[in-house]
Design goal:
Blueprint: E1 9-14, H1 18-29, E2 34-40, H2 43-53, E3 57-61, H3 69-79, E4 84-89, H4 95-102, E5 107-110, H5 115-126, H6 134-144, H7 163-172, H8 174-183, H9 185-188, H10 192-202, H11 207-214, H12 218-232, H13 237-246
Parallel strand pairs: 1-2, 1-3, 3-4, 4-5
């Protein structure tokens, strides 16, 4: 259920750095309509707190002890209906964060985001939307192309793959990606206009920006987005973005 404008947004903070949690709490508690219902310093504690508190939005770090944010996100998505996870990370080239999106997170936010960006992201996720910024989607395309990580990376200290190596791997898989796009029934079910909308979503455009590109009204774009999500069986825009990359549409 989407949060109505008059409702308080209940937020859980999950990060192993106490000072960061304190900073986020100070920013959020100063915002009308936000209530921080709890904190956790690792993924396992975050899952337990989410089950107990059932918050609307969970700010989730990725690299934590005991249980990382990817596994915690996956557990919360399956165990706590209605709670949305917003991933926090220090790096925009973070394969862990992209894997967390695959696990069911509703958005991706850098820890150096301005307070206004943090507040806007939380409100968007609480309202049932997803947060996929152009900066992040461009990095996603450059580093991972059509093949995103579907499993938790083996070592918490592993470094991101070199961009050149990733591009070489993407080139080797280009034919497979094209075949996937050509044969995927969900993609074939989209009209030409819906494909245009899906491509724009994958590029990180907002509904207003898509409307300007296609020279249609924003309400028309919302209708198209809804139909795209329905035909793809996607929960939100994040899932649609992942689908677009995996099938090689983008």
């Amino acid at each position: 259920m989407s949060i109505q404008p008059t409702d308080s947004v209940r937020i859980l903070l999950v990060d192993d750095q106490a000072l960061l949690r304190m900073g986020f709490r100070m920013v959020l508690e100063a915002e009308p309509g936000f209530v921080v219902v709890g904190e956790a310093s690792d993924g396992a504690a975050g899952v337990a707190a989410a089950v107990a508190e059932r918050p609307d939005v969970i700010l989730m770090d990725v690299r934590m002890p005991v249980m990382n944010g990817i596994d915690a996100t996956r557990a919360i998505v399956h165990q706590v209906e209605g709670s949305k996870v917003l991933i926090l990370t220090t790096f925009d080239l973070d394969e862990y964060a992209f894997a967390a999106l695959r696990a069911g997170a509703s958005g991706f936010l850098l820890k150096d985001a301005r307070p206004a960006e943090l507040v806007a992201a939380i409100r968007a996720v609480a309202a049932g939307d997803a947060v996929v910024s152009p900066r992040v989607t461009k990095q996603l395309l450059a580093l991972f192309g059509a093949k995103l990580p579907s499993e938790t990376p083996a070592a918490a200290g592993a470094e991101a793959a070199d961009v050149a190596m990733a591009n070489a791997a993407n080139a080797a898989n280009a034919a497979n990606a094209a075949n996937a796009a050509a044969t995927d029934d969900r993609l074939q079910a989209l009209t030409d206009r819906e494909r245009e909308v899906l491509t724009a979503i994958a590029e990180g455009l907002t509904n207003n920006e898509i409307a300007a590109r296609l020279v249609v009204s924003e309400s028309t774009v919302k209708t198209h987005v809804g139909r795209v999500l329905q035909k793809l069986g996607a929960r939100d825009r994040v899932q649609a973005v992942i689908f677009a990359y995996e099938t090689g549409l983008v």
